[in-house]
Fold each of these.
Amino acid sequence: EAQVTQNPRYLITVTGKKLTVTCSQNMNHEYMSWYRQDPGLGLRQIYYSMNVEVTDKGDVPEGYKVSRKEKRNFPLILESPSPNQTSLYFCASSLNNPSYTEAFFGQGTRLTVV
Amino acid sequence: AQKVTQAQTEISVVEKEDVTLDCVYETRDTTYYLFWYKQPPSGELVFLIRRNSFDEQNEISGRYSWNFQKSTSSFNFTITASQVVDSAVYFCALSEGPGTASKLTFGTGTRLQVTL
């Protein structure tokens, strides 16, 4: 089954404790990205990757890191989480192809930083 | 810069009513793609439709229909004979380049509540 898998689904952590949210897709997609969803703001892109070892900042990259060592994985790293990073996070993947119809989204990770 | 505006924050309707969700976008690109996603209470994002900027033909899929008008930069979504299962947050989104291999700019969403 084609899917994007995020882990964990829920996470409560304390300020300053490094954490990683994993994202894996099994569709051999080139393009992967991370979004955060906040009330009244919709979804905003954090980082994206066009392919292995190619990453770039989105609209709200501060406080986040990413890596793309393998095509299937695109982890989101919070080196020193702060309460303003409490949010719902989504990973997405798609083919880098104009004919491709949709982006696949993971189930979401609800992060609370206290 | 890309921008998507969903002016309706919340809409409440009674089952079987028709409802239209508005979406207005801004872009300088001549080629762009518009999307609608549904987010049910369970939280996942469900893809509903993609529309290319060069195809203004309206689309109908069951009870769902979409009206794309470049002249007014709008891409409105209508649910006919709404049902309780339609209760969700609906997002309109715009991609800045070909296909979906580029950033999606989302609107702030419209929460639809359908009651019996």
Note: Chain A has no helices and eleven strands.
Amino acid sequence: RKEVEQDPGPFNVPEGATVAFNCTYSNSASQSFFWYRQDCRKEPKLLMSVYSSGNEDGRFTAQLNRASQYISLLIRDSKLSDSATYLCVVNSMEYGNKLVFGAGTILRVKS
Amino acid sequence: SAVISQKPSRDICQRGTSLTIQCQVDSQVTMMFWYRQQPGQSLTLIATANQGSEATYESGFVIDKFPISRPNLTFSTLTVSNMSPEDSSIYLCSVLGQGAGEQYFGPGTRLTVT
């Protein structure tokens, strides 16, 4: 079983749609959780951290369910510029500073 | 955030040769990381490079194949040795960011082995 598993993509949505990505992780000792964004042929960049209480950044909402070992990312009012691959990432003390990346979910927003 | 550059940005190499990739950071950092991203897949950590000590390799990666140097706090190199087509990949270096678990990545080196 992979350490971090994500929804298979790609997600093809119209502009203005709301889209949700899911992610599960296998290591219950995982402590930190993130969503990274990777544009085509570019390096990954941190989109947002995910906190236990859930957190929102503009159109983006991230949630964490530790009991189910589940992370989600909700994007409201999708823009063409949201088209990218979204990577679910976890970290734990036993990993040191190592990040474990999911395979990513491709989002394509179309006009 | 740190500004990271990598050289070369891309290369096409013949089987059996070696390529050294350079990673330069605009500030001093303790830890640097080297990742591989194979076509259509996510990032896999190759090793962690600490200044003044041997790199720490992840399972499946060995020093003979991927020797790493870390001569100072702003620079590191990764060599891909005795290349085969299976080594065709994007290689990225990264450094720790401000927040827990946050990392900043270089633009990557796209390697094709023929």
Note: The mean pLDDT of chain A is 92.
